[in-house]
Amino acid sequence: MFEKRNIKAAFGGFISMTTLASGMFILPGDQSALATANIQPFDQEVIIETKRSLVNVLPENTGVSQEFHLGHPGIDITAKLGSKIYPLKDGVVVLMSVTRWDYGRSVIIDHGNGLQTRYAHMGKVFVQEGDKITTEMAVGEVGLTGRTTGPHLHMEIMKDGRTVNPRPYLTLTRELLAKAK
Ligand SMILES: [Zn+2]
Predict the structure, then answer these.
(1) Distance from the alpha carbon of residue 162 to the mean position of ligand 1, in angstroms
(2) Could you give the domains of the chain?
(3) What is the dihedral of CA 103, 107, 111, 115, to 10 degrees?
(4) Residue-wise pLDDT tens for the chain (181 aa)?
(5) Do residues 100 and 71 lie in contact, with contact meaning Cβ atoms separated by under 8 Å?
(6) Residue 140 C-alpha to ligand 1 middle, in angstroms?
(7) Strands 105-112 and 140-142
(8) N or C: where does the chain have the smaller number of CB atoms within 10 Å of the terminal CB?
């Protein structure tokens, strides 16, 4: 019941956000996430909020503000500051780094089979290198560290050492969740 309600809300959020899409947009309830250069309008559904979604936030505050493209090796998922970030899959934390620019506080998780994911611009980080984590455990919170113009999760997926478009993986996750209900 709970998941069903969230999914409905997610699509409602999608509709209200697309009406604003015109190359620039403002996410409802998140004025600080005002679009800047290179941000694309929504053309696909938002990531559905469930217990295992990447960012545990209200659906109306979640959307993809920047897709994977040349010069942007990940996907930007807009979310409220302090939202918990959950890993795509179970794995082991192989890197926890803090930089002033680019990624800010970020974590890389190794999921085995050549698959790794990175979560960047985090505020609080809850894991350390070597930690074994599951999809039930938050790796950190959405923050404003590194090069970011508003609160969002920058997420990368690396397959055999190369960054790939996260979209198919996110779709897969969503489909699996739908099947699991
Ligand atoms: Zn990004």
Answers:
(1) 16
(2) 2-180 (2.70.70.10)
(3) 10
(4) 333 333 333 333 332 332 223 233 333 333 333 333 233 333 333 444 344 456 644 444 457 788 899 999 998 888 888 888 888 888 999 999 999 889 999 999 999 999 999 999 999 999 999 999 998 889 999 999 999 888 889 999 999 999 998 877 776 555 554 554 4
(5) no
(6) 16
(7) unpaired
(8) N
Ligand 1 geometric centre to CA of 7 (Å): 25
What is the whole-number distance in angstroms between the Cα of residue 117 and the centre of ligand 1? 13
**How far, in Å, is the centroid of ligand 1 from the Cα of 165?**
12
| Token output for 29 | 């309830």
Residues 78, 161: contact at Cβ < 8 Å? no
Q: How far is the CA of 181 from the centre of ligand 1 (A)?
A: 31
pTM of the model: 0.67
CA of 13 to the centre of ligand 1 (A): 21
- Residue ranges of E strands in the chain: 55-56, 63-66, 75-78, 84-85, 91-98, 105-112, 115-125, 132-133, 140-142, 152-159, 162-164
